[in-house]
Amino acid sequence: MKNIARVMLCVLLGGVGAGAQSPGGEKVLSHAQVFPLDGMTMRKMPNGGESRDVVRGALMTGEAVGVHESVLPVGSVPNPQHVIQHSELIMVQEGMIEFEHGDQAEKVGAGGVIYVALGTMHTLKNVGDVPAKYFVVAIGGDMKK
Asked: Residue 57 pairs with which residues in a beta bridge?
């Protein structure tokens, strides 16, 4: 499952790679490239989780994009309810996550995908009995900053 999720990210991003700067100042992802795990800096989060940035830049079609991988400890949340000014696809690789948005709470397990629309008040929580691992693909909006 680990290798499939990484391949899925490469497919979602199309041709990626370090290139020139876009008019907005983002790194243009202009050619195919592999992002090995050992090349990603791991950050420890205040909740005991981990996060690794995969890539941040602009696609050749102009959309700003950022991708990171996170591990969320059992029972924890990555951050409190918040509103985003971009769109996100969250791909659950391991564990069980509860996606709280508006007045709803939906659970999704390994292989499931969460879509967070621009302007959505939301949070995630690991409601499983193992650490939850997931990838976030953030597109557009404030990703240009």
From this structure: 65
Length of the chain: 145
Please report where in the chains the tokens 């292989």 appear, as a residue.
111
pLDDT tens digits, residue range 100-116? Answer: 998 999 999 999 999 99
Closest to 133 measured CA to CA, from 123, 141, 142, 124: 124
Q: How many CB atoms lie within 10 A of CB 143?
A: 21
Going 145 to 122 to 109 to 115, the CA torsion angle's sign is negative
Mean pLDDT for the chain overall = 84
Q: Which residues pair with 81 in a beta bridge?
A: none
65/88 Cα distance (integer angstroms): 10
